[in-house]
């Protein structure tokens, strides 16, 4: 039994160009995530999907029952793959994710998904704080432009800052190609 799992964070329709929260580079990130998922399936590595919904309509995106909350077809779960429903950025908060990992004896996790600066960030830090060894595939994650205090921050810089922070103290950060070549 593999002590490793792939955790797919929020690769949902809402992040596509047709969604309410389109991300820069989402198509490339999903294509890379699909390669990682296919590799995991071929090698008996568990794949756990995480899907976000806002339970009380506090945001006009990720509304339960809409097409936006569906996991993108390219990375859709197969029969038997768990899907964790979350209502907060951290995939561990008030969900069964830790239980699913622990039931499978998981010690290390590879994470892919969206958004680099929000839900991927929260899940990576949460997993590391719980003692899991975490790997993040930087080119299988995506984010968007941000603004703070009148400063516009392009998505590429947001993403790079997050990956640098992970690599500094929370995770191993690598490319999909390097990961698959292991």
TrEMBL record:
* SUPFAM superfamilies in UniProt: Isochorismatase-like hydrolases (SSF52499)
Domain Isochorismatase-like residues, every copy:
5-176
The record's InterPro entries line, in alphabetical order, gives: Isochorismatase-like_dom, Isochorismatase-like_hydrls, Isochorismatase-like_sf
- Superkingdom field: Bacteria
Q: Does the keyword Hydrolase apply?
A: yes
- GO MF term set: hydrolase activity
| Entries under Gene3D superfamilies matching the protein | Isochorismatase-like
Listed A to Z, the keywords are: Hydrolase
Which Pfam families does this one have? Isochorismatase (PF00857)
**Keyword flag Hydrolase:** yes
Name under which the protein is recorded: Isothiocyanate resistance protein SaxB isochorismatase family protein
């Amino acid at each position: 039994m593999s002590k490793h799992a792939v955790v797919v964070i929020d690769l949902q329709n809402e992040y596509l160009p047709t969604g309410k929260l389109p991300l820069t580079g989402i198509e490339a990130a999903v294509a890379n995530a699909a390669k990682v998922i296919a590799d995991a399936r071929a090698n008996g590595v568990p794949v756990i999907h995480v899907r976000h919904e806002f339970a009380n309509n506090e945001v006009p995106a990720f509304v339960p029952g809409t097409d936006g909350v569906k996991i993108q077809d390219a990375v859709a779960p197969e029969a038997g793959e768990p899907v964790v429903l979350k209502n907060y950025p951290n995939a561990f908060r008030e969900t069964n994710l830790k239980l699913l990992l622990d039931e499978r004896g998981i010690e290390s996790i590879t994470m892919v998904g969206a958004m680099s600066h929000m839900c991927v960030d929260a899940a990576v830090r949460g997993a590391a704080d719980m003692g899991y060894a975490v790997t993040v595939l930087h080119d299988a994650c995506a984010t968007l432009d941000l603004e703070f205090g009148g400063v516009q921050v392009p998505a590429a810089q947001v993403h790079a800052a997050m990956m640098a922070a992970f690599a500094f103290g929370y995770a191993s950060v690598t490319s999909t190609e390097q990961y698959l070549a292991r």
